[in-house]
Amino acid sequence: FFFSSRRRHTRCSGVSWARRCVQETVSTQSTWGQLGGNKNQFFGFCFSPDYQTILAYTFSGSLHRWKQVNEKWEPLYTVSGHFSRVTDVDWSSKGDFIVSTSADQTTRIFAEWAKNKTWHEISRAQIHGYDINAIKTLQVLEDGKPTDKVDLLVCGADEKIVRLFEPTATFVNTLNSLSGTRARLHFEDPRLEEQQSYVTSDGILRYKETNEGGYQVLGLMTKNVKVAFTDTVKSIIEGEGQFHDNNEEENVKIDYDYSQPPVEDYLVNHSLWPELNKLYGHPYEILTLASTNDGQYIASACKSQKIEHSQIIIWNPKNYTILDKLDLHRFSVLQLKFSRNNQFLFSAGRDRQFGVFKRDEEDKLHPYKLTFADQSHSRIIWTIDSSHDTEYVITGSRDKTIKIWKLDQSTGQCTLVVTQSFSDSASAVAFADKQLSNGSYLLGLSLIHI
After folding, report:
1. Distance CA 268, CA 32 (A)
2. What gap in Å lies between CA 280 and CA 159, rounded to an integer?
3. How confident is the model at residue 242 (pLDDT cuts 50, 70, 90)?
4. Which residues, at least 6 apart from 79, have a Cβ–Cβ distance to it below 8 Å?
5. Mean pLDDT of all residues in the chain?
6. Which residues, including other chains, have CB under 8 Å from residue 8's CB and lie 6 or more apart?
7. Strand-by-strand arrangement of the 11-20 sheet
8. Taking the CB of residue 131, how many other CB atoms lie within 10 A of it?
């Protein structure tokens, strides 16, 4: 046997050839590949020792695996992940999945496969045209209160736009089937959810039909594609998720029964999240995002070298408008963080400052106001976080130190209690969401050599 790889228009495939000794000819044995997709030309193939499994890798760094079943090659799930530096991660509000984003221009969602106690990528939520710098989950509100519905995603990239994405039926069905959760989609009319959802014999909640994301080859926006579900078959507009101008729906059936993690081809073409809205207001590339745990506010900041461009924008996700702009920093804000109780917003910047903004429940137009600012670090402050009880704030800097501050929650003022030096710069810090049994705080720290 030997392999070749070919790319013609949007078809990327591999071919195995076999030599026929009697006829002294070489003929095609099998063909594997994709139709459509994103940067998926194959660069190499190899057989397993028993010749029953084939592994291939592509231009985008992804792995593809096929196994021979009844003389047919069936695709199998395999390991997956980012192929460039990861720029941000966030947990869902329910803790049932984690979302990550990267300079490889993708946003990926990972969840546990309860059957095997392993974690797998279950959705390629975004395939973008810019490096993505920030990602946050946002709770869905109903009547102004958080719900048990699946979170929205808020994304910021090397562009001036903040993008919001909504989950799909494909994602919810996959999450519920693999993780054993009871995740739900948001519907404006509860009766519509009753019509479009059902419970399987195994007690798994699934949705019959809704929308999923379909990317445009030359565009950045992920639009809605109408899909329909049965127990094991999904229909989607012809063209592997690509949009046509005529709005006519020509269905192509894709088999996926949610019994195992999705394969790479499925992730690329059928797990995108459609865009819900765009937020315009920044003059330069988005660097950092934050969202409150109650889903009331979004905060964002962009690259800047002037005071007027360094403002932190507070967004109202209910009507997608700018609610307020916060002044403090002179250069780029590198990280924003809301406290767990939503009463404080913390900011850290390139100007060696960090700020504390306290929530004012009485002022709906200016909900967060500056109460404290400090410039005791001698270099850029890369990272900031607060403890689960909002008693302490920690900052990490390029000056190779972290500082822990005691926060007076009544006034919003901070008092320095600890300064710890290291051999390298502190690039990321995070408090655990609960204390240890002995009352200690658990802290995560990442160092980077510059």
Report:
1. 16
2. 10
3. very low
4. 63
5. 85
6. none
7. 2-8, 11-20, 25-35
8. 17
Amino acid at 414: C
Average pLDDT over residues 157-185: 93
In angstroms, the CA 270 to CA 254 distance is 9
Burial 81-111 (b: 16+ CB within 10 A, else e): ebeeeebbebebbeebbbbbbbbbbbbbbbb
Task: List pLDDT tens digits, range 94-129.
Answer: 999 999 999 999 999 999 999 999 999 999 999 888
In this structure, the dihedral spanned by the alpha carbons of residues 106, 110, 113 and 116, taken in order and rounded to 10 degrees, is 90
Q: In terms of Cα–Cα distance, which of 184, 99, 137, 71 is closest to 289?
A: 137
Give, as one character, the DSSP assignment of residue 147: -
The span from the CA of 442 to the CA of 387, in Å, is 9
* pLDDT the model gives residue 7: 47
CA 230 to chain centroid, in Å, comes to: 27
How many whole angstroms from its chain centre is CA 344? 24
Residues 6+ apart with CB under 8 A from 191: none
Q: Count each helix (H run) and each strand (E run) in the chain, helices first.
A: 3, 37
Output the six-digit token pair for 192.
């519509």
To the nearest 5 percent, what fractions of the chain are helix, strand and coil?
5, 50, 40
Residue 16 pLDDT: 55
Q: Residue 51 class from Cβ within 10 Å (0-12 exposed, 13-18 middle, 19+ buried)?
A: exposed
Burial class, 371, CB count within 10 angstroms (exposed 0-12 / middle 13-18 / buried 19+): middle
CA 192, CA 237: separation in Å to the nearest integer? 23
Tell me how far apart the alpha carbons of residues 335 and 428 are, in angstroms, rounded to a whole number: 10
**Percent of the chain scoring above 90 in pLDDT:** 60
pLDDT digits (tens, 9 = 90+) for 383-408: 999 999 999 999 999 999 999 999 99
Encoded tokens for 236: 């989607």
Instruction: Label residue 317 left, alpha or beta by phi (over 0 means left) and psi (-120 to 50 means alpha).
Output: alpha
Structure tokens at 342: 């939503």
Query: Are the C-beta atoms of residues 16 and 56 closer than 8 Å to each other?
Result: no
pLDDT > 50? residue 80: yes
Distance from chain centroid for Cα 438: 34
What's the distance, CA 155 to chain centroid?
8
Q: CA-CA distance, 375 to 96, in Å (whole number)?
A: 38
318-352 pLDDT, tens digit per residue, is 999 999 999 999 999 999 999 999 999 999 999 99
**Residue among 434, 391, 431, 386 at smallest CA distance from 409:** 391
Please give the pLDDT value at position 40: 58
CB 101 within 8 A of CB 123: no
